[in-house]
Known about the structure:
mainly alpha, 72% helix
Amino acid sequence: MEKRNSFLTFLTALIPGVGYMYLGLIKKGVQALALFFIIKEIFPMIGIGFLDNIILVPFWFYTFFDTFNIAGKINRGEQVSDSEFIFEKYNWNTFNNNAPSRDRRFFLLLAWTLIVLGILAILNRILDGNSFYYLVLSSINAYFFPALLIVAGLYLLMKESKINKG
Length: 166
């Protein structure tokens, strides 16, 4: 592949998936762009539109910086193959006992994510849309971050005690 223009790479990386397509990774780019628009359009339709930015902002950052990472590989002369955006690493035959544990963990994570999204959509409908959004935000502000600090502190204490023992 030929060297890519940095400015054009920057401009195309601003839209998730388009940067991949500019680099010649059409399959990966189309899938990333489709996933971006599916989340942006489907989440509000099923009643969890308040979650779209929570997912889309990290997704945007990932695709933006991954585009530059791939462009760097191409500019160094490394061969970059056009692969699936998310699922190329996973064996979907997870019910087979020979499937690697990594594939099973991904399948379970995906399954639980879909279940949680479905529950959130139902709760949002029951609690009349906006009220659920504010309930979630107030709960996160009130409990999640303080609990996260406690868990981080406990983790550091446990890690330090393992170092002292071993």
